[in-house]
Each structure stands twice: as structure tokens, then as C-alpha cells.
């Protein structure tokens, strides 16, 4: 395994991305403490993201609105605008790509790049060029923090050291001393449960962790992840393994006036159709559907096996079955969140057809109908035809919600 002798990676993290995009788009929000919320008109929700002004007052992401208002009475709450965030993300990528090729997009507000020989010698100039281009061509209210290191993992940690709008450079000859004072919370790959396990074994700080051997780390983590983390923290060139798509799903927190079973069902239908559209765009079929509801004093979850299907009719029929089961248990309780997930994926061209259920004429007919609907909607960039009624709730954003890990596409907002 190779151990780089110089910095080879850049990791970039936009500062308070969602709130800063809102400040850039709306001048009245600039310089004010801003909290982005799922929907307007209620304090019974959380602040999804907050601006640097709100953070300075003690607010944090995923803080209850009532608590955030206590911390910062002047907090300005604004409802999320996922399509605005998507467009801002694409504009920022375009400007960064004009300076350096993007190696991987890690989330809507994080990315990583490989450095060429010149960039390794002049990281400060590279960071300044990126920041200047963002300021000139996107806006001065969207800033970023940048970390440089031998590998992606260390660059990601370095990136967090001087936020907001900072630049941190960790050359290999400096390591591992910069890691010693860091809490485990600052290390990607160490969550609360792992921290408790390490503490139980007498490993309370980074210096003790880094003194472990790779096989010992593997034993503690109970899989190869621990060993990979050891090599990453010690500056080796660790490449992330390829991942396979395991599911397609959408979820939504329901506004207070839509928390009945009837309203939740309408939203579940739209979420399911949008998840199925995403699945078909990437040429998969699904052999299972899972429905999950957050309800008063608990939750409901159930699943249904399917033949390898890809048409809306099959999925909506399956949802009707699961919803009928749910009504028997939760019809009299409020529904706070709904989530639908298509599982057991198969590449559409490689699926094993069921002679009785999947390859009959009726199934083929509905697949042709669904494909025709997709073609029409794609042609006109909107949902102009659907299987059954199409009644998105006020405010939209069903299937195109704010997201850190998945960047919505324009089609997600149809």
C-alpha cells in the first residue's frame, strides 16, 4: 500500500451551505441569523441548517425551533427551497471545475479533488483561486473551507479545522501530531457507539488510538473498516471501495395540517412514484416495497415481496395492500412522517422473469404505459400524466427534499 510523501488531495466543504445559499439569493437575509426549516407556519419542527450568525448565537443544525429561538430571539426562519439548493450546487461545481477537476462529489456541500504536481507545490494559491472564483461568479455569501493532505480522509478532517472560510494544509512530514488534540467526534468513521467501545478498552484519545496496530483496529471494529481507518489516519493512499445501489426511497415529514392517514396516503403515493421514476432512470427493477410511518407514540413498518417489477401500477397496488394493513393499526393516530422504499434491486435487463406474474401480457402492458408516461413527462419537464391522481401538498418538495447525501435532479421536482 502506497504512502504519499506529499499532499495529494483537496477536500472542500461549503460553510453553512443551505443557509448561505438563502442569504446569497435573498439580500434581506444577509448578515442576519438564519435558520432553514422544512416548512413554514409552525414551531413544532427543527432547524435543518443555520447560518454562521445563528451558530455564533448558539444555534446548531437539527435543533428544535423553540430551543433555537431561546438561543437566538432574532432568528429568521425560512422554509427550505431544495431546487434553489440544487441549482446553487451545480453552479458551484461548474466554477470549481474551471479551476481543478472534481474527483468525487461526497454530498451536496462536500467534494474532493486530486492535485497535480504544480498544485501540490502551491496549495495556498489553488485555494485562493477557488475562493475568488466562487465569490466573483456565484456570490460572496457562499464561502468554503478547504483541507489539503496526503489522502482524502485526512483532507476531510483538515477541512474542518479552520471553519468557516479557512484553509488547512497538513503535509505528511507534519503528521500525526495535528491529530493528537482532536476529539473522536472530529474523526469520520468514529461514531458514538464506537467511541464508547474504545473508551471501554482504555482508548480515550487520538494519541492512544494512533498507537494501536492495524489488526487491533480491525478487531475493535469487528470488520476491515477499522484496519482501513488505521491506514487512512496514518497517511496511506486508501481508496474508497465501490458501492452498489441497494434501494430507492423517499421520505417526508408532514406539515401539521397533513398528519391524517388520508393526507399521508396521498403523499406516500407521490413519494413512491418519484422513487420508481428514479429507479427506472437508472435501469433497475425492484422485488420489494417497504412502508414506514412515524405515528403518535410509536411507528409502523411493513414490507411486501414482489416479482421483479418496474411499473407504477405494480408499486401502487403493493402500496394499497400495505396501507390497508397500516389502517388497521394506526388509523386513529397522527402520522408525522412517511417513508417508502423500493428494495431487492435487479438490473432491468438482467432480472429473472416470473412466468406467472412478471412476464404476462398485463404486466408488459403496464410497463409500456409507464414508459410512455415517463417519456411524456421528460419531454415537457413536468408531471403532465400519472397513474392515478397527482395532488402534491402545498409547498411541494415531495421527493426533492433538502439533502446532504443525495443531490436532487431537476426531474425530482416535477
Automatic annotation (TrEMBL):
Transmembrane residue ranges: none
Enzyme Commission designation: 2.7.7.7
Family, per entry: Belongs to the DNA polymerase type-Y family.
Cofactor(s) demanded: Mg(2+)
Species annotation: Roseibium algae
Protein name: DNA-directed DNA polymerase
Gene3D superfamilies: 3.30.70.270, 3.40.1170.60, 5' to 3' exonuclease, C-terminal subdomain (1.10.150.20)
Residues annotated as domain UmuC: 9-191
Catalytic activity: DNA(n) + a 2'-deoxyribonucleoside 5'-triphosphate = DNA(n+1) + diphosphate
Entries under PANTHER family matching the protein: DNA POLYMERASE KAPPA (PTHR11076:SF33), DNA REPAIR POLYMERASE UMUC / TRANSFERASE FAMILY MEMBER (PTHR11076)
